[in-house]
Fold each of these.
Amino acid sequence: MQRPMQAFLPFFALVVLLGSAAASHADDPGALQFAVSFPPDRSSQPADGRILVLLSTDPGDEPRNQISFQPDSQIVLGVTVDGLKPGRTVLVGAQAVAWPIASLAKLPAGDYFVQALLNRYETFHRADGSVIKLAPDRGEGQHWNEAPGNWYSKPVKMHLDPAKPATIRISLKEEIPPLEMLPDTPYVRHIRIKSELLSAFWGRPMYLAAQVLVPFGFDQHPQARFPLMVFHGHFERELIDFRETAPDPELKPDYSKRFHLAGYNRIIQQEAYKNYQQWISPGFPRFLVANIQHANPFYDDSYAVNSANLGPYGDAINRELIPAIEKTFRGIGQGWARFTYGGSTGGWEALATQIFYPDDYNGAFAACPDPVTFSAFTVIDLYKDDNAFLLRGAHEHLERPAYRDYLGEIFATQRGVNRYELTLGDHGRSGEQYDIWQAVYGPEGPDGYPAAIFDKRTGRIDRRVADYWKEHYDLVEILRRNWGELGPKLRGKIHLYVGSADSYYLNDAVYLAEQLLDDLHDPPYEGEVDYGDRAEHCWNGDHGAPNAYSRLHYYTMYLQRILKRIEASAPAGADLQSWRY
């Protein structure tokens, strides 16, 4: 599900002038607008991408780090540019898509910090013949506000009033620098491979990577071979829940609005260090953990399946990356010794990987998974509803919710979240949640971009696209249709966990999954479905600790159940000893 925006650079309070450039066409003297350009010394070549003009009343950070789908979001305006030449301008005005205001014409008069950014696109010539423009991942996990190579301007405070005509010129003189390579540590190793499958599909080199957590004694026991736990989730450049040094006593405590906890950053460090201490303790099970990285031109991960718009990520991960990890880090390399787990997006991926590659894994632990059936696509039934945004009554239409807090108060609607995404990018190029669902689950559209499951302006659902989703990626429907074949391979392997107050209403789909699983008798599924009472996103099966803590314990959450599964299902002659030191 949704990812928080991440801060990149400190905020600068600057003077009013933004720079100037030659206009590409006549300005409208009767409106407030922004004329955005990049100087010839930034690049001599035309540029493609999404121009984002960012307006903020909050001096605490740069405007580019204050945009989200939630009520505290500052303002963003979006316009796509194709072949913008150096020194020429693109006008961003009342016609630009805007969030959370309706348009620039509706901007309340006042003082704002003004900034602009170009999320730069690359042209891809795919193997299916499509030529499309997308923002390639550049090592940051598809965050436009911190993607290396994106151009931006420094923030400037000024008074804006849409009732007073003005053309404000902004020159994108700054560039986000490249990221430094992260070094290996005694326990956190890195691996990166070129995927031949993905490179062939995308028409240029494409890579997969992973952070691999190796067990205590890994280097001292060269004969040992280890079971592998594959952790699915959003792109993480660094492991936040494993720390080999004591917490920083000088860390200034922050406040988590989500968990209503002061000093949550300190809690994260404390729990990460406890995880490390447990990892190296005597008698602790010795496993490999692979946190895979598969950011792509649409999102911060691929959903770990093959798809029409992203290409063969499922095969690339399971036939190229996982074998490379096991070869490099001495994995056992057999299905009985592999497990998948994760939460939210990672929960869906863990379950989907187990279903699509049933012999390759011995269990999936899926916490708060993204919708496992599109009969409950959060609060939408894509097969029966005609509109994703509106619940239609006899005489009243209600806006459908998209996000709630733990008390049930609604903080975002389906219409609002999709307006936010449309502002960040057209043709499904926002790099956000609904656009990646559309890209992964749907067919290619006639223009080469993903076919829309619903209109982002009106909410009207395309039933033909919904049928495609149902056939290919509705996990409950796939189990229902194919249980005769899949059942013997999945018996005892499916574990689902979700809070009954999940923030994104993901519990609704799990209810339907449980109904199906309980009705399966030939063979019975013999797995587990568990609910956290009143727990929000992302409850993972821990009844003894609140979400704020249990979400930091994924590396150890399921180990005892995994060990029991190995002991009960490992084939005769399996290596159950070399890794038990």
Note: DSSP finds twelve helices and 28 strands in the chain.
Amino acid sequence: MSEMFDIPSELEKLPARSGVYLMRDETRRIIYVGKAKSLRNRVRSYFRENVTDYKTRALRAQIAEFEYILTDTELEAFILENNLIKKYKPKYNILLKDSKTYPYIKITTSEPFPRVLTARRRGREKARYFGPFVTGLRDAMSVVRSIWPVRLCDLTIPPGGGSFRPCLNNHIGRCGAPCAGLISAEDYREVIEDVARFLSGQYKPVLSRLEREMAEHAENMRFEQAAKTRDAIRAINRIYQEQKIDDLTMNNRDIIGFARDEESGGALFFMFFLRDGKIVGSEDFLTTGGLRESDGAALSAFIRQFYNETTFLPKEIVTTTPPDDLELLEKYLWSVSGANVSVKSPSRGEHSRLAELASRNAAARLSKFGAKIKRDFAATQGALEEIRALIGLERPLARIEAYDISNTSGADSVASMIVFAEGRPKQSDYRKFRIKTVSGPDDYASVSEVIRRRFERFLSGDDRFNLLPDAIFIDGGKGQVSAVLEALSALRLEIPVCGMVKDDAHRTRGLFYGGAEYSPNRRGEGFKLITRIQDETHRFALEYHKKLRSGTMLRSVLDEIPGVGETRRRRLLQAFGSLGGIKAASFDQLRAVPGMNASAAKSIRDYFEARPNELEENKCTDTDKL
């Protein structure tokens, strides 16, 4: 807990007003964001003694301080909460894992000669949007470009037309070439209006005209043109049979069903998209994290996150369960779309049937992927809980930092720092250290140096080391643990430290913590996670050490040979792969290396013949890649 922040006294100061609260851990990282009609009542509820939910207790154990932002209305708090969740992605909030958006067709009306483009989102610039397209976007664009001579380039063309040379698209009839002044702005605008009418759903006049043109082509034996026109007619029919292209004024519905995995707390949401009375597509979305909120709270969180990311909101959203804060949710959706959006949970009728069908689909998909979800949960959150319970820690192990030392008889000593967050390796936080102050194979002193350097960087405010772990794992036993604890004590930091102990076969045996050794169930997920952490720590340290040792040895040996510089050293390595390979090469083989002359080849042979044990002295084998 922060020394400057006294939670009991701060709870007494909370106002009974609406707002958003942010929970922070000891590193000041935001781990939960919530809204409240009364901040005083809501924030206090986390610190009551009768809280039984594990995740809520886990959250409370990590709260070092909190802050709040007052708002004038609940709606403002509702909107602000969603924006802060999106920004900070707190660990304990429900997070949408697979947010999808659907594209539009966009006409750039701000240009003298507008273009027809695809767009993933509705921008703020002056333009007309048609869609969104769950399916059929490519067909629609293909029809537009095959029928109307709209420009495809991004040239800046003045209102009176340009003076460029027409491109190939003009020669094949795909563009009216306003860039060359071959079509007036008025005529081009009429083409664009025709495209807009088609995209708005007025496709029957287009079909009638195309059918007349196809008959005319066929009558005049222009069969190739007739076939192209026929394909365009088929594409238009396919688009409007599979998906009605919707303008924003048309009434549409999204149907949402969901199923929850009670063990992991995750949920799978399944959606049907209804456009003009037809189901034109479906998608499923997985959420993770979150406390054990009610179904209504989970649904409300999903709706806010999903429609905040999409480019289109329907007139109506149908759910199996009424979401929490329904009135606020509808006001929020209005603030996003600028139009009224109703959220309904009918108990009978066709829409109720579709909502139940969506929920059955969600349950079926969750059942299909449920085994994987449960395996992932057991291997991560479940494993962390096993380790925490084994050694008797009070707080959850959300972030573990593990360290290992690697050297060759004390030479080229290095250390690795790897990070496991929520039970998974977080490679972006891995760090490497080259030991600077220790001579010889002194693991205890090396460990002490690394811990001191790492946490001094934290205390100095270094952004690359700005997080504190919930526990430190060190490869070793009592001696290494004591070295880490002494280094932390000198910096006035208190962090649990565990030694990863190995058996005589150099395999993971258990953990040394608090002066005692703990042996987890070898078939349990906790033991498997400890093994993964130990193996990854050793791998990362060894990888860095080999790289450092190889470069040092190559320089220390080959730099002593007259006539061998950086370029020849690199070419020798490319040709023979190792120092042993270079030593074993004959004069003729050395001479055949690009850029090698007879004098340099002779120097290399003379050097190794005078030092037959060079590799043994340097503790290097023929298989070491330099």
Note: Confidence is low (pLDDT under 50) at residues 242-250, 614-626.
Amino acid sequence: MSTRSVPAVLWTLLAVVATMPFWDLGHPLWEVDDARYAEVPREMVERGDWLTPSLNYVEYLQKPPLIYWLGALSYSAFGVSEAAARVPLALLALLGLAGVLWLGWWLFDPATGVTAAILLGTCVQFSILSHLLTPDMALAVFLLWSSAMILRAIHRPQDAWWAGPIGGAAAGLAFLSKGLVGFLFPGAWTVGLALLFPEARRGVTALLKSAAIPVALLVVAPWFWVMTKRHPGFLYHFFIEHHLLRYLTPEFNRPGPWYYFIGIGIAGLLPWTPLALGAIAAPALQWRASDARVRQLVVWVALIFAFFTASKSKLPTYILPLFPQQCLLAAEFLRRGNWDRRELSLSRGAAIFLAASAGLGLFAALVLREKWSVLATLGLGHWITAIFFSAALIAALLLQATGDAVPERPFAGAAAAGSLLTLLALVGARQTGYLLSADAVASEILSMWRPGDKIYTYDHYLQGLPYYTRKPVDSIVNWKGEFGAVEKDPRYKTLLLDDNAIRALPASGRTTFVVVRPRVYEHFMTLAAPGRVKRVAPFPNGIVAVMQ
């Protein structure tokens, strides 16, 4: 089908959506992940070692290196800054939009591909994570391209010779983004498709005969070979501690009930949640009569959702890899039109529920604004207003989406609402930077810094301190976090300390800046020797106590 079959309004919307990952790249680094994943590549560049990641100048081997390498390349090209840290993230998000567009273009039709890219770019979780540094965006994008190539080989076996190697390379890059799931998801899904769809087996056979698996292994093997040579025990640390134990045990203290990701999915897909629910429910209601292409995408979504639901360690960002396929399903559902009564009732009901919930949230925020001053402080009015606006527009869209074509005006309005949600979130982040970032704390320390001074943190650790001060945190008192892995390493024996370290401060002739978690400040003052705290600078995320 030619590009002329794509309405002009969709191209216009897509052009706007493609700019969204580049909006306000330079906002302050947010605690925790944003700052952490900006600091590790900065240290790579400073130390000149791009093989062994470090955090606070301590070996940090929990995650594969791809996101760090991309950040280090950006720093090398543009200099160290918040914007440079996020340039790779924006490019990855753009690659994700291109991936869902390409997949939808040939799997269904061009208009569905363009619509899916608009849905993905404007859904809240994808758009926010295109501005928040985590490995999840890289994982989701490369898994998308891997799955797209698998589908290409299944539906067009004659293309497996080139789709297989590209898909294998994408799976390898997904592995280097976040680990074993980069191989697990494409592999398990391919096996599932071969079992559930007999017509897919010819394409799966062609895929296996291609260079897909050798290319995937070739992408990941060199780094692992070097790391095992450099760090004895690395494979156990990486695969057992940070894969199996993280997944199977609550050791990492990230619990969540079985319905955890239901709520995350409903919120993360805003403003397209009702469409997404309808798109999943439609094949579920009539599985055998549904299009095989739709059912194959549903299997991917179900696989990701089930895997992370079963995990003992949960974070909201984990299910991002199902969002591209979910948005493609929603786009196909929307463009197909002619919904039956059950499909239309479900989507309309979801839209009405969403609009009502958002309206109640807005009302509650206005009523409680004076009692809960935190609502004003955090700028939650931006979020609630945007959600309400989005819900109202998507409800209008669903009430009209009963024909064969996308109703242009309500669709454009809903997409604009999704863009507005991202814009207001970034505005809110700017306004609340002092709450979310270590920038102000670091500036306070640097304003008094002299060579030989030390930085301690008490009862927490601000990830952005080394980034903004360009100096290590010398000691962390009464907190371990991700540094617990090196607790017994003699190279870092002064890193993790207890209350006695505060009692011994300060060292003669030296100033020590102790960044104290506000809730334990009174206890901290009982530890400090009388008269040793010369100055106190309070910030919402850390009180700077200057000890001399």
Note: Residues 439-547 form one domain.
